[in-house]
Design brief:
alpha/beta; TIM Barrel; 8-stranded parallel β-sheet; 8 helices; binds D-xylitol-5-phosphate; binds zinc ion
């Protein structure tokens, strides 16, 4: 894990990082789609795993994660939108995922600590995700135990949806409880405008799918999003040159 320790540095506030979601990439040339954002400085790839139960869609599974791992140097951030995260955690870890984020709605509060221990035992960082209707206080007790808190700003299942601005107070409430070294990740509907809004609210990890992979120039879209998020995070307007 040490090669990734700078992404979870407990001694300083993290610069905002864009985590491209490959959900909207061309899966026939996935390695090239990932290489494009890597060339722009990307360090984290977000992999959306769906099971057709927890969300009404199917997406990538274990073999795709394994292929991505062989073709990318990035930290692989697996977002498990699946009803039974415990059942599949080991397979995704073995395939090369560096972090596993499970949904709060799928694991009762009393069972979370055990699952988190299991995932850490697999050598992965751990995240907990909240659907738009799940309140911040549903995870307050879990925040100190995890590396990543993921706030969904669309209903999970599909790329290309509109950012739900009603989730912003939740981002702010969680940001107040965040310590250095943790990611407050926002996922869904991120574009140049909403990246600024989310980063200003306290997010330091922004997932972007369609804004990158439907843009026609993934590398440049990545670069612009990361710049916008970092400017907003530091409270600034346009960067001084
Ligand atoms: C939604 C996923 C996403 C999402 C991102 O179910 O978790 O990561 O597809 O795509 P955009 O950025 O297009 O909302
Ligand atoms: Zn996601």
């Amino acid at each position: 894990m040490s090669e990734w320790s700078h992404l979870f540095d407990p001694n300083s506030a993290a610069p905002a990082r864009i985590a491209p979601s490959v959900l909207d990439a061309d899966f026939g040339r996935l390695a090239a789609e990932i290489a494009a954002v890597e060339a722009g400085g990307c360090e984290v790839i977000h992999l959306d795993v769906m099971d057709g139960h927890f969300v009404p869609n199917l997406s990538i599974g274990v073999p795709v994660v394994a292929s991505v791992q062989k073709n990318s140097k990035c930290f692989l951030d697996a977002h498990l939108m699946i009803a039974e995260p415990r059942r599949y955690a080991a397979a995704f870890a073995k395939a090369g995922a560096h972090s596993l984020t499970f949904h709060a709605e799928t694991v009762a509060p009393a069972d979370r600590e055990k699952l988190i221990g299991h995932i850490r035992g697999l050598g992965c960082r751990v995240g907990i995700a909240l659907n738009p209707a799940t309140p911040a206080d549903a995870v307050f007790d879990t925040i100190p135990l995890v590396d990543i808190i993921l706030v969904m700003t669309v209903w999970p299942g599909f790329g290309g949806q509109k950012f739900i601005a009603d989730c912003l107070p939740k981002i702010e409430a969680i940001a107040k409880r965040l310590r250095h070294g943790q990611w407050l990740q926002v996922d869904g509907g991120i574009n140049l405008d909403t990246a600024r809004v989310a980063a200003a609210a306290g997010a330091n990890s922004l997932v972007a799918g369609s804004a990158i992979y439907r843009s026609g120039d993934a590398r440049e879209a990545f670069r612009q999003l990361q710049q916008a998020a970092r400017e907003a995070q530091s409270g600034g307007g346009p960067r001084q040159r």
